[in-house]
Structure formats: C-alpha cells, structure tokens
Amino acid sequence: MPLPVAHYENFPVASLLCPAPLRAPIAALYAFARTADDLADEGAATSSQRLADLHAYRAELQAIAGGGAPGPRWMAVFAPLAAALRSHDLPLPLLHDLLDAFEQDVRMTASGATYPDRAALLDYCRRSANPVGRLLLHLYGVRDEIALARSDAICSALQLINFWQDLSVDLPRARHYLTDADCAAHGVRRGDLAALRRTPESDALVLDCAAWARALMLQGAPLVHQLPGRAGWELRLVVQGGLRVLDKVQALAGASLLARPVLRAPDWLRMLARAARM
C-alpha cells in the first residue's frame, strides 16, 4: 500500500506504480525524510531544540547503520529503514546529506540568512533533494552517470518548484530561497518580499525562477526512458506533476507570491495524459 501522507503532496510517493518489492524500502526512505523535515520545520520548537532533535535523529541513523536496534522514540521510522539498509545496501552518505540540508534550513531560518546566488541554492538542492533520486536509482539498479545527472536535474527542479509555489508560506516564516543575485537582477527589494508586496519586478523575478526550474526539469526528463516498466511510468508522473505546478505558477504571472497554487482532479487527468505521451 502507499505510505499514508499527512502533508499535502503534489507528487506520488510509493504508489501502486512502483514495483511491489520496492514499495517498503521507498516508504521507509520517505518516512525517514518526512520525519526529519518535520523536526526541522513543524511545531513551535526553538532552533536549538530542532538542531538537538536532528542531532539525536542522526545518532539513531548511525546506530542502526552499525547494526544496533532502533530506539523507542522513532521506532516506526528506523525499524523499516534498518531493514531497507540491510536488504538493499543503501548508500548511507546520501541519508546524511538529507540531514545536513535540514540542519542548514534550521540555521538559515533562525538567522534570516539568504542564498547569494543560484549556485549556492543548487548546492542546497544537492543535499536536500538529489539524494532522494539517487537512492531510488540505487533501488532500481540504475548506476550510470548520465542517469544520475538526469536524476539530479529532476530532483533539483522539484525542489525549486516547491520553493516557487510556496513563496506565500515560506517568506513570512523567514525562509528565503529567492537568491540575492536574482533579486538584484530584477530590482526586487527584500522588504517588499517580506511584506508579500507584489510588484512588476517581483512578478518578473518569480517568472524567471519558474523558467529556470522548467529548464532543469526538461533537462532531466529523458531519464524516464532509462527506467524499466512501472518505475518509468512513476517517474513520468513525477515529471509531469512538477511541470503542471509550474504551469500554474506561470499562469498566475507572479501572484504565487500571494497564494499557493494547488493541483486538483482535472490537473491529475492532464498529467496522466501528458505522461502517456512522453
């Protein structure tokens, strides 16, 4: 069965399109990442409490990787993950990369720091998103460098798409993913963004960032033809889900600064049709 999802998700997770033997490890990986993300982002904990929890979470990962039994606090996460680590020899550094990214999120939010340019933001994506694609390719037995590069492009694009659809949520929480260089290039002031003040300049900035994410997604899209059977179809839906969110962001012409676009039933039908045509 698919993993129950308590958070809104635009993209399928461990769906019935996944090969049945891989649903359990994929669900375990998703639960690991989702729980860590919640530790970094949900509730009213202080930044120091969040970092302490993530440190304890990392120690638990190290413990099960060394053959230890999972502790009681996150038993539901680490018991399945331990089984997946053993049965599929998952690359442990990729899981640590995810935790590095969550810790970076906490620190940057607490300090109100911003990303200087797109290279710095992509470096964050390298640890926050790309490990997920690489772990999935590992499960599918796909190892070649072209496939890995395409997976990185898709995963970074998905992370960027999440940023551009969540501006109205992230900016009031001091989470800044629009880079200093992009803001300067479009003449957008940070004060206007913090106040969610829409201007012609902010519209151009959002549309430029959406176009960047689309280009990355299209760069990685040929990966769908490198994955066999149902895995390829799963990825087609992921790619089309991301592109459909971008359609909505771009149709709003910059108004996603004020309201989060969401996918509805007709959008999923369109995604299915587009996936079939890929």
Automatic annotation (TrEMBL):
<dbReference type="GO" id="GO:0004311">
    <property type="term" value="F:geranylgeranyl diphosphate synthase activity"/>
</dbReference>
<dbReference type="Pfam" id="PF00494">
    <property type="entry name" value="SQS_PSY"/>
</dbReference>
<dbReference type="InterPro" id="IPR017827">
    <property type="entry name" value="HSQ_synthase_HpnC"/>
</dbReference>
<dbReference type="InterPro" id="IPR008949">
    <property type="entry name" value="Isoprenoid_synthase_dom_sf"/>
</dbReference>
<protein>
    <submittedName>
        <fullName>Squalene synthase HpnC</fullName>
    </submittedName>
</protein>
<dbReference type="InterPro" id="IPR002060">
    <property type="entry name" value="Squ/phyt_synthse"/>
</dbReference>
<dbReference type="InterPro" id="IPR044843">
    <property type="entry name" value="Trans_IPPS_bact-type"/>
</dbReference>
